[in-house]
Write a structure and sequence with these properties.
343 residues; alpha+beta; Glutamine Phosphoribosylpyrophosphate, subunit 1, domain 1; globular; binds N-hydroxy-L-asparagine
Length: 343
Amino acid sequence: MLNRKRFLQIASLTGVSSVFFNSLNGQKIKPMLNNPVVISTWDQGIAANKGAWEVLKNGGSALDAVEKGVMVTESEPNCCVGLQANPDRDGFVTLDASIMDHQYNCGSVGFLERIKHPISVARRVMEKTPHVMLVGQGAQQFAVAEGFPLEPEVLSGEARKAYDDWLKNSHYEPQINRENIQNKGHGPFAPAKYDDGSWNHDTIGMLAMDVKGNLSGSCTTSGMGFKIRGRLGDSPIIGAGLYVDNEVGACVATGQGEDIIRVAGSHSVVEMMRQGHNPETACRKIIERIVKIKGADAKKIQVAFIAINKQGVIGTFAIHKGFSYALKNKATEKLVNAKSIFR
Ligand code: SD4
């Protein structure tokens, strides 16, 4: 049993004392002694978590971990996030990303073209400008000024094929649609791509707690395939796609961005945790709110949240089955299926 004196000895070695002395609604928060830990959305989270773990296992910060982690996915030639992903309906890949640390510092980029690592540009916005968000040409100009190379404007082979197929009908409909969810699956147990060439998701969100008990989060996406040019989803919007409050917990979202934005999804989940709900219940309550707002149309969309509280308790919830998140800590590395409203 860990008595107070012994805990204070450990705390002075590991730096978790600030966690112990934080309080939430007047309650003392117990320390999480099996951190560090990293969680991220979808099956590609397994590889991304490995990247984050290289930082966390050596005592690195959660902020460095969530940047390095999702960079793995942004670089993955066979994945649906980053420059190799599906383009907008005019044939251009446009990227959104956000990052937030344990001190309410945050940065994001939207509608960014020809830059391989939007997450790192988002971090530069956070660290090197007085702003939170840069978009479009201005974001690209900033990235180039910061030394990020401009990549060639070419679609990957898979994206080219998917776009050419889409052009046959040019029918604009979010990719995360009912047919895909119910007939083709959605998530790690579905194929990474459907038979028609469309991806089953296009985002990675990651949350980490480091050895000091500090939280950070990141989110990076190509947005929805064949979207109207200029469309931004939830991912670059702090409070919608991502929110971190180091006193309470953190949340990141995936799924139909428009419906995540209208409930300020990730911030709302964190506020539920502040009110004392555990992470799974907090996620479920905001998913239920979206389902209520959407009515019958809720069956046509997918939204999922993953969340972690200050004690390191992790939770998730989705509208439809098929969503899972990847978890890595000292003891384990696995995919965990989310509970959902519709089964
Ligand atoms: C968006 N939330 O741009 C993203 C899409 C997503 O898996 O999460 N896809 O709306």
